[in-house]
Amino acid sequence: MYEALAEVVRNGFAESRHYGSVAGLAPDGSLAHARGAVEETVLPRSTTKPFQALACLKAGAPLRGERLAIAAGSHTGEDFHVKAVEGILADAGLGVEALRCPPSWPEDEATRNALVRAGEGESRVRMNCSGKHAAMLAACAANGWPLDTYLDPSHPLQQLVRQVMADCAGEDPSPVAIDGCGAPLFGLTLTGLARAARSLVLAEDARPVADAMRAHPEYVGGTGHVNTELMRALPGSVAKGGAEGVLVAATAEGRAVAVKVIDGSPRATTAIALRALAALGADTTQADPLGAVPVLGGGRPVGEIRTIPEGRP
Predict the structure, then answer these.
(1) Rounded CA gap, 158 and 185, in Å?
(2) N or C: which end of the chain has fewer CB within 10 A?
């Protein structure tokens, strides 16, 4: 059963509520914070990307630094993101035409406006998943695997992704779905997703991915992106959101949370994750501004989206 995790308060009146689940792990890996249906399967959406990047790394893709970070991220399509994606592809002997993610406008508003003024349109390389897709192509090129079918769930790379996710989560990923970018998507329980997030910061083989994300958070998100700002506010942490109200975060010492808001809205997920990390004993004070989401009326704050404490009806 889902719990009320956050509410939208306008001029003192609670007009909406977000229900969902939160799984929080202590540094020793035990489930120390559980709200809602934490053993229910969710589709992790883009929270999967760090593990897809890890699979590409294991497959021999020559990724490091900002290129590894963008492989694990959902970038906002800024010019420096495009340069990194093009670099991954060029080193594999490929061009942007090899990408199979759908064309998209960049999420960064200033970049989009500049493209419109220049008379340019949507492109695959500006799509927020292009870093992941470029890394997948690089892994295929390194192994001589087929390029045209790299998104097929039966492809050797996708089978490796599934195995990596199973190893990190400690459970068999199921069901198999197709993500918005066209890549295979493997379901996990929310607790399994939290275990995977914890493994990202503690497991020796996953450490390069976490280190790249922490060193280059602007490639995991972008200018002003909440995932980028959360990692900057909590040094040593990793954070990755996904569509339909999913978010994972883990601190350097192994406190990890996975959030699923059942209505699919992401607007309260960061605040919910921060409350859960604090409940696990993490010092989140530097990130407090990210947990304060204003509700506007006439262009000025008239309320807030606030988390609901555990046990409150």
Answers:
(1) 9
(2) C
Q: Which helix (H) or strand (E) holds 109?
A: helix 109-117
Question: What is the rounded CA–CA span in Å between residue 210 and residue 189?
Answer: 22
State both tokens at 113: 């406006």
On whether the CB atoms of residues 214 and 249 are closer than 8 A, the answer is no
- Matching residue, tokens 């939290």: 194
Radius of gyration for the chain, computed over Cα atoms and rounded to the nearest angstrom? 19
Distance between CA 81 and CA 78 in Å, rounded?
Answer: 5
Angle at 102 between CA 194 and CA 47, to 5 degrees: 5
pLDDT in tens, 133-187: 999 999 999 999 999 999 999 999 999 999 999 999 999 999 999 999 999 999 9
Q: Whose CA is closest to 52, among 119, 113, 111, 139? A: 139
DSSP state of 123: B
